[in-house]
Amino acid sequence: SRVVVLLSGTGSLCAALLAAADDPGYPAEVVAVGSDRAGAAGLAHARERGIDTFVQVLGEHPDRAAWDRALAEELTARRPDWVVSAGFMKLLGPAVLSAFPGRVLNTHPALLPAFPGAHAVRDALAAGVTTTGATVHLVDAGLDTGPVLAQRPVPVLPDDDEARLHERIKTVERELLVQTLGDLVVAGLPPTATTTTEESPR
Ligand code: GRF
């Protein structure tokens, strides 16, 4: 299966997928890595590995809808079977979501529906929870609201700060993402996870 990864920053989750895909036994290959930020370190890592990359900066488009269309075109050109948002810090719009219905995954550093949004780790710390976690879900039009595919708990330790807790979560996210994507490409979407945009097979 052909996978395109979208990222905005370090790209350690993308790096984990690339490492997993090095194993010929892994059922997916990352055919391209895209970003909304030209300087994203994850892009440089992909380029070093000879992986195709692309950038679509929101501010270089007249509006969000134009950016969404440009991103959809970049993705469509790579013919992905799956699109994986791994630390991509923008909401994917209708052009992208309608181009790949039920085929866009996201990984989130909390046990959704708890702590959605861009500050999940900070919010979990502030809430004083003793357990948070990682979630891989299908992306729908909402913010971190699509059907959950897999979750794994991560303990919060008394002297955790955001960075330490986030790193602990990311080690789990990496494993969860590699495993969940691997299972998906082999077995397809679990029947419970079809989104409203994709009729479940009769
Ligand atoms: C991950 O925790 C992801 O869930 C969140 O941002 C982090 C990205 O990390 N949205 P990296 O860029 O893959 O290192």
Automatic annotation (TrEMBL):
The record marks 144 as: Raises pKa of active site His. It is an enzyme of class 2 (transferase). Pfam families: Formyl_trans_N. GO terms for biological process: 'de novo' IMP biosynthetic process. One of its GO terms (cellular component) is cytosol. Pathway: Purine metabolism; IMP biosynthesis via de novo pathway; N(2)-formyl-N(1)-(5-phospho-D-ribosyl)glycinamide from N(1)-(5-phospho-D-ribosyl)glycinamide (10-formyl THF route): step 1/1. It comes from the Bacteria. Residues 2-181 form the Formyl transferase N-terminal domain. It catalyses: N(1)-(5-phospho-beta-D-ribosyl)glycinamide + (6R)-10-formyltetrahydrofolate = N(2)-formyl-N(1)-(5-phospho-beta-D-ribosyl)glycinamide + (6S)-5,6,7,8-tetrahydrofolate + H(+). (6R)-10-formyltetrahydrofolate binds at residues 64, 89-92, 106. The keyword Transferase applies. Its EC number is 2.1.2.2. GO terms for molecular function: phosphoribosylglycinamide formyltransferase activity. Keywords: Purine biosynthesis, Signal, Transferase. The active site is at 108 (proton donor). Belongs to the GART family. Catalyzes the transfer of a formyl group from 10-formyltetrahydrofolate to 5-phospho-ribosyl-glycinamide (GAR), producing 5-phospho-ribosyl-N-formylglycinamide (FGAR) and tetrahydrofolate. PANTHER family: PHOSPHORIBOSYLGLYCINAMIDE FORMYLTRANSFERASE. This is Phosphoribosylglycinamide formyltransferase. It comes from Modestobacter italicus (strain DSM 44449 / CECT 9708 / BC 501).
